[in-house]
Amino acid sequence: MSAVQPRVATAPAALPAAGIGAGAGLARALAPRLGLGLYLLFLLVPIYWLVNMSLKTNLEISSGMTLWPQNPTLENYRRIFTDSSWYSGYINSLKFVLLNMAISLAVALPAAYAFSRYRFLGDKHLFFWLLSNRMAPPAVFALPFFQLYSAVGLFDTPWAVALAHCVFNVPLAVWILEGFMSGVPREIDEMAAIDGWSFPAFFVRVFMPLVAGGIGVAAFFCFMFSWVELLLARTLTTVDAKPIVATMTRTVSAAGMDWGLLAAAGVLTIIPGAIVIWFVRNHIARGFALGRV
Amino acid sequence: MAKPRDDRAWGLVLPVLLLVAFSALIPMMTVVNYSVQDSFGNNQFFWNGTGWFRELLDPSTDLGGRFFDALWRTLLFSGLCLLIEIPLGIAVSLTLPRRGWGVAASLVLLALPLLIPWNVVGTIWQVFARRDIGLLGAAVNGLGIEYNYAQDPLAAWITVVAMDVWHWTSLVVLLCYAGLRAIPDAYYQAAKVDGAGAWAVFRAIQLPKLQRVLTIAVLLRFMDSFMIYTEPFVVTGGGPGNATTFLSIDLVKLALGQFDLGKAAAMSIVYNLIILTVCWVFFATTTRGQSEAVQGAGQEAGR
Question: Which InterPro entries does UniProt cross-reference here (chain A) (predicted)?
Answer without folding.
Answer: BP-dep_ABC_trans_perm, MetI-like, MetI-like_sf
